[in-house]
RNA sequence: UCCUCGAUAGCUCAACGGUAGAGCAACCGGCUGUUAACCGGUAGGUUGUAGGUUCGAAUCCUACUCGGGGAGCCA
């Protein structure tokens, strides 16, 4: 017997009337005594296989034994079939059982989040979860492709850090051979050093926040793509950000059409996003809130409901820029035309998905940065190396951080960020 | 840390002070084009834990445990 070509399910439409091989797992089976339908998944899609008892009684008997999530290699002829989900169907000529599964815990019926979260290692096999993870993969790759096109260099930041970068948030503490250390909450300060070396750089990795946040927008461990560019001013920075987000959307629309369909995503909402993105100063955003009848004092930070209120006025993500100095990080550069605000901007996703980017221009003046570190009561020794960047050829520079999970949640139109990462770390849940 | 909701069969839920039940999954049987297939049958329970009220508690009360959603903080 000649060896058949191994074809991925997503490519089967290119093999009409050909006999090929598919390697995967049984997703579902329907049988009526004389005919059996086996739905096979291989990570790229679902394939319906059909077998008549009268054609191959031996194979039919074997098919009866195969249960949900058993691993199988199937061989047969591919043909177009409108009644089959996916449009193509395989007429079976051979079944090779790799492993018969034990009784599989996740049925095709509904389950609660608690049950599924405890079985995340199996939950990711379902069509919706697989679709989310494929979109995530596209988003991450699109980030890299876009930045490399713009001559950015990947410079990974450390995950173990000696001190709290920004001094504000709660960090996970670890024992570093007897010394106190922390899991990184941001690669930004290291990015600034790398940008002074390589010009335009980015890092891409996990970041950690130990705050007891328990909402659909928070994880204890999440992924950020943080870019930093020497000689980029505030305006250059915003242009880069909107270009990146737009590129990500177009790439996902191009590469993940089937996944977005599985996720039931309203694609028109994504297609409506256009350049340039709208911009609102913090002060204008406060006015928007007040005009909607909300009480809001200038100088306070926006809460999640405020962000939703602001972003629902637009089809595209919206930049909110020039926040009051005291509610932003110590390294933010003051606006030369208004000392009360800084050249920082957050990008708010539409449909209430909240902040997906935070960024801005950094302070490049040594004296000012020193006084800001003192004002924020930060340990000066820990920032000595950071101050060096202003001592040896300081230049204007800007950067930002993109939250991957929130971006994927928005693009896929799902409720909770925990489903956009293979193995989420949430408050009170460390397993699996 | 605070507010709020929840925990009953493997799963999703019902029973709301009076003998714990259904659908799905499992197991047995039937069915020639199924779409979370369908039809018949079998088996499956110390109602999260501890205490209290009551003739009687899954149901009412208290505490605890575990979890969901939200606030703050942030991406």
How many helices?
13
* Strand composition percent: 25-35%
Q: Which strand order spans the largest sheet, edge to edge or round the barrel?
A: 6-10-11-18-17-16-13-12
Separation, N- and C-terminal Cα atoms: 43 Å
CATH class of the largest domain: Alpha Beta
The value of Rg in angstroms is 26 Å
Which structural category do the helix and sheet elements fall into?
Answer: alpha+beta
CATH H-level name of the largest domain... which superfamily? Bira Bifunctional Protein, Domain 2
What would the CATH topology of the largest domain be? BirA Bifunctional Protein, domain 2
Uncertain runs: none
**Chain-averaged pLDDT:** 92
Categorize the overall geometry: elongated
**Count of distinct structural domains:** 2
Question: What is the tally of beta strands?
Answer: 18
CATH architecture of the largest domain: 2-Layer Sandwich
Helix content: 25-40%
**Largest sheet geometry:** 8 strands, mixed
Explain the overall architecture:
The protein folds into 2 domains: 9-99, Nucleic acid-binding proteins (OB fold (Dihydrolipoamide Acetyltransferase, E2P), Beta Barrel); 120-420, BirA Bifunctional Protein, domain 2 (2-Layer Sandwich). 37% of the residues are buried. The mean pLDDT is 92. The chain is of the alpha+beta class. It is 30% helix and 27% strand. It contains 13 helices and 18 strands. Helix 4 (127-149) packs across helix 6 (234-255) and helix 4 (127-149) packs across helix 13 (404-412). The strands form 4 sheets. Strands 6-10-11-18-17-16-13-12 form an 8-stranded mixed sheet. The longest helix is centred in the first third of the chain and has 23 residues, at 127-149. It binds one RNA strand of 75 nucleotides through strand 1, strand 2, strand 3, helix 2 and strand 11.
């Amino acid at each position: 017997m000649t060896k058949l070509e191994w074809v991925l399910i997503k490519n089967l439409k290119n093999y009409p009337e050909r006999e090929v091989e598919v390697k995967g797992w049984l997703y579902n089976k329907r049988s009526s005594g004389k005919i059996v339908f086996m739905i096979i998944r291989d990570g790229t899609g679902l394939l319906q296989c059909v077998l008549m008892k009268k054609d191959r009684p031996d194979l039919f008997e074997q098919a009866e034994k195969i249960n949900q999530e058993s691993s199988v290699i199937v061989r047969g002829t591919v043909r177009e079939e409108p009644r089959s989900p996916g449009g193509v169907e395989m007429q079976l000529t051979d079944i090779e059982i790799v492993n018969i599964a034990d009784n599989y815990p996740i049925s095709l019926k509904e389950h609660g989040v608690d049950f599924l979260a405890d079985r995340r290692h199996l939950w990711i096999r379902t069509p919706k979860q697989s679709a989310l993870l494929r979109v995530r993969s596209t988003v991450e790759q699109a980030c890299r492709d876009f930045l490399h096109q713009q001559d950015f260099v990947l410079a990974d930041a450390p995950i173990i850090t000696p001190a709290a970068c920004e001094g504000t948030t709660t960090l996970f503490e670890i024992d570093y051979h007897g010394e106190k250390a922390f899991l990184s909450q941001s690669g930004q300060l290291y990015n600034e050093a790398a940008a002074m070396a390589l010009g335009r750089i980015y890092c891409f990795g996990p970041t950690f926040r130990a705050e007891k946040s328990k909402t659909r927008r928070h994880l204890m461990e999440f992924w950020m793509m943080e870019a930093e560019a020497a000689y980029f001013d505030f305006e250059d920075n915003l242009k880069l950000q909107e270009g990146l987000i737009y590129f990500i959307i177009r790439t996902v629309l191009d590469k993940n059409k089937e996944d977005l369909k599985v996720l039931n995503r309203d694609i028109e909402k994504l297609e409506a996003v256009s350049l340039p993105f709208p911009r609102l100063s913090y002060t204008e955003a406060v006015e928007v809130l007040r005009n909607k009848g909300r009480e809001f004092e200038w100088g306070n930070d926006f809460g999640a409901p405020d962000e939703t209120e602001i972003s629902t006025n637009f089809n595209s993500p919206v930049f909110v820029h020039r926040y009051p100095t005291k509610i932003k990080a110590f390294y933010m550069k003051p606006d030369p035309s208004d000392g009360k605000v800084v050249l920082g901007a957050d990008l708010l996703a539409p449909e209430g998905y909240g902040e997906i980017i935070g960024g801005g221009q950094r302070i490049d003046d040594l004296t000012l940065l020193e006084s800001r570190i003192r004002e924020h009561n930060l340990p000066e020794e820990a920032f000595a190396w950071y101050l060096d960047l202003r001592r040896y050829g300081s230049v204007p520079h800007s950067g930002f951080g993109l939250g991957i999970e929130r971006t994927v949640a928005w693009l896929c139109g799902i409720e909770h960020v925990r489903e956009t990462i293979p193995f989420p770390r949430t408050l009170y849940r460390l397993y699996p």
